[in-house]
Amino acid sequence: MGRLAIYPGSFDPITNGHLDIVQRGLACFGRLRVGVATNPGKKALFTTEEKLELIRLSVGDDPRIEIDAFDGLLVDYAERVGAHAILRGLRAVADFEYEFQMAHMNHFLRPSVETVFLMTGPESFYVSSSLVKEVASHGKDVSALVPPPVAAALARKFGAP
What we know:
By secondary structure, the chain is α/β, with parallel strands linked by helices. Helices cover about 45% and strands about 20% of the residues. The chain contains six helices and five strands. It has a five-stranded parallel beta sheet with strand order 3-2-1-4-5, sandwiched between helices.
């Protein structure tokens, strides 16, 4: 069935840009595990359970995609699930410095796990979960930026019609 890569993130919420990376990641790896990083110190709009459900609804029933939550170090999680790679999306040059530093630390901690970067598509390079939440909180339509289940969940969270 192919090698396993982890696509980690907070996914608060998952966006169409994330889904683009998922689909393109599947073209590179036979299997992909979308790992929702839990961070109790970070204030999230959606609970971990809500995020997992929104991801499930957004990716469908593709047997090549696993969805899970984890805490602790990403490389330890990769080892536990038998992943060979960490998949990361880059939107802009601003993302690169942080991601470059993390990739090197992960390599230091677990040299057997490679980090692979994919550039987001031109239609998503300006989209972030934070920006989507900000726009939705002001009652604006974000349905072109997120999957339908996420648009509906955002509308419920912010009391939009």
